[in-house]
Amino acid sequence: MNNDHLDPINSLNVPELADTTFAMDFLLRAKEGVRNIAVALTESASPDVRALLRNQLLQGIAMHQEITELMVSKKWFHPYELSEQYQLDQLSAKNTIMIGNMNLFPADMNRKGIFDRTPDEHK
Hints:
This protein is mainly alpha-helical.
């Protein structure tokens, strides 16, 4: 494993990893929102508030379904194929450990001599 966070090889597939991470976070937050609205609905006494919360609950459920369908279509989420989902989760854990082990703040930040000279240096 290359521990140099400035090495361009370490940026391969990062946009895809970011997309899957953001989508999963969005899915989990949508689920939390549905749960919180459902609790609030059971606690409210006003018919107007209950109607408002019921509408928000339906919108939250629809949003959760939309995110799930997007993730399934992109093969970022396998709710019906547990072995495939397990493999994705293992890969995610491996990548998280790899990033956590990277020395993101090395003592020596000097890059002099690694890159080609600038056009001003060619004069």
